[in-house]
Amino acid sequence: MWLLLPLAGVALATRPAEAIPAFAAQTGQACTDCHVGGFGPELTPLGRAFKIGGYTQRGGEGWASYVPLSLMIQTSFTNTASDQNPPPQHYAPNNNFSLDQISGFIGGGIGEHTGGLMQFTWTDVDNTAHVDNMDLRPYTTTFNLGGKELRIGTTLNNAPTVQDPYNSTFVWGFPFIASAIAPTPVGNPILAGGFTGNAIGYTIYAWWNNALYLEGGAYSTFSPWLLARFGNDYGIGSTTSPAPYLRAAYEWQWGESAAWIGTIFMHADVDPPTGIPYQTTGALGTDHYTDYAFDAGYQLLNHGPHSVTVQGIFTHENQNLKGTAGLTGVASTGANLNQFRANVSYWYKNTYGFTVGWQKTWGPANAALYAVAGVPSANDKPDNNAVIIEADWVPFGKDSSLWAPFMNLKLGVQYTAYTQFNGGTSNYDGLGTRANDNNTLLLFAWLIF
User: Fold this and answer.
1) C-alpha separations of 104 from 35, 101, 107, 268, 400 in Å
2) In whole angstroms, how large is the CA radius of gyration of the chain?
3) What 3-state DSSP class applies to 411?
4) pLDDT band at 401 (very low <50, low <70, confident <90, very high)
5) For residue 304, what pLDDT is reported?
6) Considering the domain boundaries, does residue 7 fall inside one?
7) What's the whole-model pTM score?
8) Three-state DSSP class for residue 69
């Protein structure tokens, strides 16, 4: 089980907001200008331009526009269809209140060419603190190319897609919040979290005519010394060489609409974890992962009462797990994994929101990953299927809001229904557990100021 724990819960993991009041104060604009629903992290075209521009845009007035600090608090109540056995550490088998996280942010621009976002998080769920999302833009500038603007920039980040401007990808994709203590499926492609918080990515990007976005670079995992100080551990393992990452997307904007299509490629050669913190080994072989993803989205943002977003992403992963197979003592080394995610959201006056999401993962049996002692998949398959429904209320975030731009709040209710979980519908773990035993009701409060 120790090999799977780093990936468990990635698909439905809690993701803190990228919409911080420091950005609103710096730009002098309301949260609704850059974020669908006035809270985030879902970006509008203007929000994407601010991010690609290195978080450097200004326009705010007064001392607050130069203070790049924000604070976030998330708390929630979780109910699962059946009691958890064993219960989450430090919690009852069901009906739990939790302080999911307290995060501090440093975010904004330094001059015309440099900016970034860094998040530091403490969670009461397991009483740990760590460096969370990091997206630094050391240098960005613009040129004239063929009468159109070409922006060139660089990034330093700690997770593939944390720097991506589109919410159809992973780090900032729906669901934007999830229970920190409910069971979640184990099967996920590496793009969905295998290198989240445990690697450094160096990328260069180009954005032409506010339409064509190209990015390329590589990721290398941190040393054990750095991991211990950042409060993170290896996910799928440690890279044996820099893992290449490529991204391309094209966006159309017309009237009050925007649409985009894109693709992502990533390949990683890694030594798997041994089960001892901060330790991996290639003594029995190296694992190889290759991911191909295709995403698309559409937004109707009419600056009136109605906003609509439709977006999705499909990922195919090829796996050769010689190292993991050697450590677990199983014969299976090669397999593949597929995952599809999609969601549709509607917002009324950027105050009342309703979103329906769908996540499906499937692939052949892989004993190297799913037959490890303690992993709840009796048939060695990663298959899972979930529908997520969420309703939100954001009373602030507008120009006329109380305490704007210094505070924002989202209150929500979310329900996740599983028809498949860790390879099965019923008795998926050999202990009689059904997929819908993991259905989760989440009530949450999300405050940022």
Assistant:
1) 20, 10, 10, 31, 25
2) 21
3) strand
4) confident
5) 76
6) no
7) 0.93
8) strand
Closest CA to 345 of 314, 384, 313, 306: 306
Decide if 5 is inside a domain: no
Please tell me the predicted confidence (pLDDT) of residue 11: 36
Question: What contacts 90, CB < 8 A, 6 or more positions away?
Answer: 125, 126
pLDDT digits (tens, 9 = 90+) for 170-227: 999 999 999 999 999 988 999 999 999 999 999 999 999 999 999 999 999 999 999 9
**Among residues 340, 357, 341, which one has the least CA distance to residue 392?**
357
User: 11 or 106: whose pLDDT is higher?
Assistant: 106
Span 95-122, average pLDDT: 96
DSSP string, 101-169: EEEEEEEEEETTTEEEEEEEEEETTTTEEEEEEEEEE--EEEEEETTEEEEEEEEEESSTTTT-S-TTS
Measure the CA–CA gap between 163 and 167, rounded to whole angstroms: 11
**CA–CA separation, 402 vs 397, rounded Å?**
9
Cα separation, 75 vs 180, in Å, equals 10
**Residue owning tokens 């979103």:** 355
Round to whole Å and give the CA distance between 369 and 334: 11
Whole-number Å distance between alpha carbons of 351 and 101? 24
Q: Which residue has the higher pLDDT, 431 or 182?
A: 182
CATH number of the structural domain spanning residue 175: 2.40.160.10
Tell me the pLDDT band of 9, cut-offs 50, 70 and 90: very low
Q: Domain count of the chain?
A: 1
- DSSP string across 243-266: EEEEEEEEEEEETTEEEEEEEEEE
- Tell whether 16 is covered by a domain: no
Residues 6+ apart with CB under 8 A from 254: none
Residue 8 has pLDDT above 60, yes or no: no
**Domain of 257, in residue numbers:** 21-448
Whole-Å CA distances, 77 to 187, 355, 369: 25, 19, 31
**Residue 8 lies inside a defined structural domain of this protein:** no
Q: Name which residue leads in pLDDT, 290 or 433.
A: 290
